[in-house]
Amino acid sequence: MSTVQDVNPRVRGIRAPVNLQGLAACISEQIAQSVKKNFKSVIDVSSGDPHKAGMPPISFIRQVMAVCLYPELLKKKSLPLDVRQRAQKLLDMCSGGSVGSYSTTSSGLPQVQKCISEFITRRDGGVPSHPEDIILTVGSQKGLSVFLNLLTSGEGKTETGVLTPMPCPHTLPMLLDMTGLALVPYHLFEEQGWAVNLDELHRALEAGRVHCEPKAIYISNPGNPTGYVQDRETIEKVIRFAATNCLIILAEEVHQDSVYGQDKEFISYKKVLSEMGKTYAETMELVSFHSISTAHIGECGLRGGYMEVINIDPAVKKYLTVTSSAPVLPQLAMEISVNPPRPEDSSYNSYTQEIHHIEDTLSQNAKRACEFLNRVEGMSCQPSMAGLFLYPRVHLPPHMVEEAKRLGVKADMLYCQRLLEEEGICVGAGCENGQEDKNYHIRLCILTPPSTLEEILARLRSFHHRLLEKLIEEVCIFIEVGQDSSVSEIAMGRSLKGRMMESTNLNHAKQRLIGSKKASEKMIGPEFQVVSLGSITSYPVIMNTGAPQGCVLSPLLYSLYTYDCTDTSNSNIIVKFADDTIVVGLTRRSILTGCITTWYDNSTAYNRKALQRVVRCAERIIGSELPSLQDIYRKRCLRKAGRIIKDSSHPSHKLLKLLLSGRRFCSIRCRTSRLRDSFFHQAIRLLNTS
Known about the structure:
Blueprint: H1 9-12, H2 20-32, E1 43-44, H3 59-69, H4 81-93, H5 110-123, E2 134-137, H6 139-151, E3 160-166, H7 172-179, E4 182-187, H8 198-208, E5 213-220, H9 232-244, E6 248-252, H10 269-274, H11 278-281, E7 286-291, E8 305-310, H12 314-317, H13 328-338, H14 348-375, E9 379-380, E10 389-390, E11 393-394, H15 398-407, H16 411-423, E12 425-426, E13 428-429, E14 442-445, H17 450-472, E15 476-481, H18 485-492, H19 494-503, H20 506-517, E16 527-529, E17 532-533, E18 536-537, E19 541-543, H21 554-562, E20 573-576, E21 581-586, H22 596-599, H23 605-622, H24 629-646, H25 673-676, H26 679-689
Parallel strand pairs: 1-12, 3-4, 3-5, 5-6, 6-7
Antiparallel strand pairs: 2-8, 7-8, 9-11, 10-14, 13-14, 15-21, 16-19, 17-18, 20-21
Helix pairs in contact: 2-16, 3-4, 5-13, 6-7, 14-17, 15-16, 20-21, 24-26
């Protein structure tokens, strides 16, 4: 295989994986080599890996597995009796009494299958589960991959499609690419807490049938990464929808033990299906997936999982076990997770305490992080009811969106990359979860020690505030759109016009007006328009749109022109008057606060009040609160001083030196008030009082 062209075309078609984890590892290596960073360590919360995020493993599980790996520990009286008894029981399941042997069947160890079916029966209130329907897999994603391969067929319009929620688990889009299946997106409703909507399912199905043949619907319950928990009514609607349209339900239920929302409970698709009567219970094809990579167990690296197949033809089921079975060790870990210590066991109390600690930490972290993020300007977050993630929406400034376009990357991915480089926080980008619209999101695991979560949130807020500073401090530009719109456009300049056109829907309005021009051509004659600035006059421009002042056609043209004018960017607002429209936007040039550390303290109180009135006027125009000039000055002073202190090569580094106590900075003598009000003196005062 000498060239890329020799690679399987299906493999080449897989969407490129995001390598933020690789960048995180590289930065960690740089820190280990004493490369200076603004942070001491990288915190990776991009994936649902509690142990990586700092959570300790469950003692009972690790003790039993340790004994299974090294049976000599069976003789150690220091280990609890029930630990040694469970380990011996698990070793007896293995061929030759060793975890190093192959699994006895391709679908898993029979005793483990039986334990899982008993767990499912208990979970579903007595609904029977059969061991022969349980297939042990190398993680839930591998099990899903095996099943998806059975569905793969056709090309073009006959290609198999899978209805997939948006957002979806971040590994799913690549998995569908790998198996050669078409992704048919159905959107979850963010304003309803990421709920599933039946009308949206019908819309997605009809849209998908144009280019493929949908044969399955993927469900994540509780939602990954949204944390939405489906109620019985929603599940029944989805089952009826799938049955009516002959779709197989693929239910990912790996976060079923992580429900913490008030008045929320997990109800499995199998349980609801069994209670909907024989018409559904005996015919509806359902595959359910579970894993040990969950909140309570968190053994992600062991890659253990299972799938339960319901109403699948036995002749088809045998193909699910064609590949080699899961390794023995994760199968044993799965047995421990579904069959925990009982009240009469010596490890019961410690096991219960550890589980409750994880549950409390997850619930409190979810509430704390959601409240925090909703207070950060430019962020909003729906409350999570279950699972390991929060999925906040991030309002990105136009300059970052433009930069991402130039670099050929997704804007939310650029945001995550800069966050990692500047603050050492690795989060997942919403585009990984399949979202392609302009509602940008990030994904972060919240099952971390509370102190770690506080550090994550503080770094995230610091980065986001720096990012938005350019917008907060910018000057409002008014663009008149009316009969003299061409004049305004010439005065603005082409570059600013382009930016404003991209952030509103003015282009659509122009097209609508041009389309209407032909119908009223006799009423509109060509006009010459110029722009004058002092003695300088621009070249004339011929106007073929617009109408004379007072013309009866003007209201019609105005309505057509402004019908599609909507503020699609957070930095714009549209104000409509009787005969013209004003688009208020924010430029990327900071005029009011430029070099504020140089001039602010030497300005008079009168001038400061005048400038603050400009800020208040801008607040009324854009409809949101802006920081005061004093706050901006203080923040910039401290930031600039901090950079000088860290840079020993800076010419002014020696001016900012600590006293012998190491707590305060040495003051600089001065004889004039002008020098006393200069940057270095003010910076030292702020450093000593902050």
